[in-house]
Write a structure and sequence with these properties.
The chain is mostly helical and 443 residues long. The protein contains 19 helices and four strands. The protein has one domain (7-442).
Length: 443
């Protein structure tokens, strides 16, 4: 085992890897709560019953997809990187695809499945790795930061700290509302723990917020701690039904938008996470990521399996940096995280106590963590700053991750050519420019 995971070469041991894997689990455990709430649209009342996904089924699908992805990443790519349904991608799935486009969640899952199959083919062929390496680092960092702002915005909305306003579009909500105050309390507690360097601060912040909510009768007291694993029957296989039963329902421009968006966002989100975690762990070689193809394949398989189980795109988690900071250096840490995710399946009853007001602080803080990638962008170079800025600002303002990516990628070749840096533009970027221009014209 030690030889397979290269313990001696990496200067690590079982203790460091187990602690690292546990730390990563605690840092990302919030997704087991947030993802079911997001995909089920629980915070949006008054919708037709058919638009709501079964929260219990999504919880089980989330844990299984995350465990599978993390274990595959550890065994195949040997990186201390955990995977789970991605924040931002789940928001796009729920709030844009299902809520805004009106696409049934079953077909949305089909879109994730199709994107996952394409990911697998691209990963096996090496094309996906080539495309990711061709994208300038500044845009990769900008995509991560833009998604962070988008996630924060969703969290503020869910907590009603930010509300709609017909005169100025958005405005500050009612801060005297007890539920809003609960979120603010949770945010303060979580920030304090994160500043103090408490491992799993986001998870503990949610736990403390939920307990305080129960004390003040804002949150229901759970009927049990350990219980049966929720059935995946309501969601399992739903992604495959449209393919076999009603393929005509997939022949629409909106479905194409869904697939392309999941493709593009997961492309860049995964790349940014892999690079940031590998850099922190000292695993980068000559500015390239060894075994990148295997890491991308693990991501692709987890996405496809997760769609079949009943959850949105599974991707590499930036919270893995917490595990690396705790000492993780090998894929054994990711395997530890995967095992813990499987064990979490038996604690579903606790999910009932977690409301959107309890999870909002986690969304806001995760957004803040993701925005830190802005520091890696060369803002003094205007030709780089402009496309990066457009990526970041367009995501929350248009309420669309895909739109932010498209705008920034369209401007990048233009500003670089005008700046006389045409030789620095990879040919693939011109191909992406054409694709994104077509995206706006036709889709």
């Amino acid at each position: 085992m030690k030889k397979y995971f290269r313990f001696e070469e990496l200067g690590t041991n079982y203790r460091r890897e187990i602690i690292g894997g546990l730390t990563t689990f605690l840092a990302m455990a919030y997704i087991l709560v947030v993802n079911p709430m997001t995909l089920s649209l629980e915070s949006v009342p008054g919708l037709p019953e058919s638009m709501y996904m079964d929260k219990g089924a999504v919880f089980t699908a989330t844990a299984i997809a995350a465990a599978l992805g993390s274990i595959l990443m550890g065994v195949l790519a040997k990186y201390p990187i955990a995977l789970a349904p991605g924040m931002g991608l789940n928001a796009f799935f729920a709030y844009t695809v299902v809520l805004k486009f009106g696409i049934p969640w079953e077909i949305a899952l089909t879109g994730v499945f199709v994107a996952g199959v394409i990911f697998i083919l691209l990963s096996l062929s090496g094309i996906r790795e080539t495309i990711i390496n061709a994208i300038p680092s500044e845009l990769k960092y900008a995509v991560g930061a833009g998604i962070g702002l988008f996630i924060t915005f969703v969290g503020l909305q869910n907590a009603k700290i930010i509300v709609g306003n017909p005169d100025v579009i958005v405005a500050l909500g009612d801060l005297a509302d007890p539920n809003v105050l609960l979120t603010i309390f949770g945010l303060i507690i979580t920030v304090i723990m994160m500043v103090k360097g408490v491992k799993g601060g986001i998870f503990y912040g949610m736990l403390i917020t939920a307990i305080v909510g129960m004390i003040f009768k804002l949150v229901e007291v759970p009927h049990a701690i350990v219980g049966e694993v929720p059935s995946m029957e309501p969601t399992f296989g739903a992604a495959l039904k449209p393919i076999f039963e009603n393929p005509a329902s997939l022949m629409t421009s909106q479905f194409l938008i869904v697939v392309l968006t999941f493709l593009f966002v997961n492309f860049f989100d995964t790349a940014g996470t892999l690079i940031s975690v590998a850099n922190q762990a000292g695993l980068m070689k000559d500015n390239k990521l060894p075994r990148a193809g295997k890491a991308l394949l693990a991501d692709a398989i987890a996405t496809t399996a997760g769609a079949v189980a009943g959850t949105s795109t599974t991707t590499s988690y930036v919270e893995s940096t917490a595990g690396v900071a705790a000492g993780a250096r090998s894929g054994f840490a990711a395997v530890v995280t995967g095992v813990l995710l499987l064990l979490s399946l038996f604690f579903y009853p606790v999910l009932d106590v977690v409301t959107s007001y309890v999870t909002a602080p986690a969304l806001i803080i995760v957004g803040a963590l993701m925005v830190s990638s802005l520091g890696s962008i060369e803002w003094t170079k205007f030709e780089v700053a402009v496309p990066a800025f457009f990526v970041v600002i367009a995501m929350p303002l248009t309420y669309s991750i895909a739109t932010g990516i498209a705008i920034g990628f369209i401007f990048y070749p233009i500003t670089m050519i005008v700046a006389g840096r045409i030789k620095e533009i990879h040919p693939i970027m011109y191909g992406l420019w054409v694709i994104f221009v077509a995206y706006f014209i036709f889709l």
